[in-house]
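Aim 2 progress update. The chain analyzed this quarter is reproduced below.
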Amino acid sequence: MDPKTYNPEHFLWQFEEGIGTVTLNRPERKNPLTFESYAELRDMFRDLVYIPEVKAIVLTGAGGNFSSGGDVHDIIGPLVAMDMPGLLKFTRMTGDLVKAMRGCPQPIIAAIDGICVGAGAIMSMASDMRFATPEAKTAFLFNRVGLAGCDMGACAILPRIIGQGRASELLFTGRTMNAEEGERWGYFNRLCAADTLLKDATDMAARLASGPTFANGMTKNQLNMEWDMSLDAAIEAEAQAQAICMQTKDFARAYHAFVAKEKPVFEGD
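Predicted structure tokens:
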């Protein structure tokens, strides 16, 4: 994947000044996902592990909505007719998208407007930060279609963002979380006007992209790895991670800039 020439089939990609912008682009259907778009998104996030030129990701949707989740006609209908091996292949593939999002070192900022439900809500959840408009409506609605709330890592990740009780309510009922509630609960980092949402998210991506990106990748890795570590193990893992970062040129650049009373210019090495 060359970020300058990458031309995906099932979503839009823009790359500028180290920031990759992914736009779900089926606005007439509120940007649903298909078997093919799941797989293409998964493969892209996996590839980003090896592409340091991409320093941050903005994930958004076209036409005033984020995503309506799995396409009712292209996904839900065929799933009803599948046998168990086929269903498990699908659910593992969708889970692999979340693994790829969490596994790529680049921070992902989701810019959310309008409908953000089902697998769309999961993609927002799997992002590192979430900016939303006051019109954002987020629902983990699997319960409402006869499925368990434990989909694509929701029972592992969502309680860590908003707490066990609040996550339980959303996953047991499938009800909609409005934007004000989402910000108050800590799901959204910030609420933005619709006409500034993408700019605000991109500005945050630019801030992260101009930082010590190797170190940012280490931070994301530790945020993932320390979920199931003891405190002693976590402190030791962070000691090792920080020692590695202390060998980077960015660490030396920060020191020399401080001595010279200048702002450091990081290069990610």
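The chain is about 45% helix and 15% strand. The chain has a mean pLDDT of 95. These observations will guide the mutagenesis experiments scheduled for the next reporting period.
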